[in-house]
Design a protein that fits this description.
single chain; 598 residues; 9-stranded antiparallel β-sheet; 20 helices; 21% strand; GH3_M; GH3
Length: 598
Amino acid sequence: MEAAQVVTSNGNADGDYQYEIISWFDSVSKNAAMVQTETLGQILHLNYGVEYLKKWFGDMKIQDMDACALESLYASLVPLASHADFEPFIQRIADGDTAPILTQQPITTLSLSSGTTEGRQKLLPFTRHSSQTTLHIYRLAAAYRSRVYPIREGGRILEFIYSSKQLKTKGGLTAGTATTHYYASEEFNIKQEKTKSFTCSPQEVIFGVDYKQSTYCHLLLGLLFWDEVELIASTFAYSIVQAFATFEEQWEEICSDIKDGTLSSRITLPRMRKAVLDIISPSPCLASQIEAICRDSKASNWYGIVPRLWPNAKYVYSIMTGSMQPYLKKLRHYAASLPLVSADYGSTEGWIGVNLDPCLPPEDVNFAVIPTFSYFEFIPLNKKKQDLISGTVGYIEDEPVPLSQVKIGQEYELVLTTFTGLYRYRLGDVVEVAGFHNGTPKLNFIFRRELILTVNIDKNTENDLQLAVERGSEVLNKYGGELVDFTSHAEVMHQPGHYMIYWEIKGEVEERVLGECCGVMDASFVDHGYVVSRRTNSIGPLELCIVETGTFNKVLDYFIGNGAALGQFKTPRCTNNHILLRILNLCTIKRFHSTAYN
């Protein structure tokens, strides 16, 4: 399969649009402080008189206030809040209360978070503004990417995208993941038209209720359009790795379908089946080419399979930061020299920043805050001096500052005020200011505050866990093993409490090697509270649990069965979910205890 010799052209209209949207962002970022003040004013004027704000503003007439004075008044009157503070208001909306509770415009749709961070899904407001900002950031990011990796106009994207089940609340509102709402929106089709890139799969595949059937069809259609595919994409890197793990198992069946123009009996959903059969036709020559590539690639453990199957692809595009970083090694294995481009920074609550430097590796990427999307505040986080008695190191929080007052090198927790009805909402994300694009800060994502392993006086973040697992997996790799996925749990039911890390691995590895991996991870947690507690045995030895092949697919199935979408799924890195722990413990086939502090 040879790369097409074509002239890359984005067309004059598209080039003009790219210039226009980049010029717009340069303008708003140069005046970020003023734009932020205006954005807050717009949010408060649009939602003046709603129940939540009336609690704090009372009957004040804010419409005639100076924008700067209103910004100061807002920060002094409206308290910082978490999702727990908004939950009763959102629940009333879900139950059918049509009064202006959080927004003046009626909320008819609610988003479900993935539920992988806190073990349960959260309901959040979703409005037309949510879809519009998604479209806007996609177009802005595409304009910056096209400067480095121009793509052919009319090309296709092999997108591993999935919807979730859409539910009806007691009050008749539609609830589903934010990505599901977006794929069903007018903005999703506009995005394809404006960026001149079209997904390989029809809506019937994207909205299939069985992610395994959708994945098979995504792969099949991506191969049928092999010479048109300009990039491979998904919401999260996990979905791409999951898809190619599936491909390793099912490539022969896919080739058979391509050869004969048929569709595997594993595709049982009628609408999906009909939509795909309407597209495919027998292609025996193509099937032979793919078979030859797959047989050769299988011998090299599928290294570089992506550019071999899609030689015109310019890059792989997905969220690759935070909890997605552990999948980068496998993604690079599949992609070989094909660039990995990290997608933009957002959450179910709203979009935050755009990747302006697509040529940077995912580990180094940062995100320029878009000052028109929400009103952003930043809680400065300063590490406390070490407590000499307990050994703990924590954070001192200073008063929140606006976007215009952040400092390079300082860590902050993000606070959002959104057009969708969240006011001074603590997102829980810890970021570091890496620099500025004109007047708007560029952020590095550090970790989520909720994801903390703690037994005693110790505090280890998701980042600390990932570093420990990376060091342990280096030993595993040295002896021919491969880490497929992992999670952790702080076991406190028995004393002394200890950390449990669950690994799913590929390859045959001696038990002494796994014991060494266990000890290396234990010694890699350098939080002073942990080290002191391990030395005094107030925290017990780290336990490494090896689970059977397919365990993390069972974890995925559990979340999908509870309303998550594959495209939004993130393996929980630390869990107290009793059902999840039951799955993990039932699937554990070997256990090792660290001797690092013996």
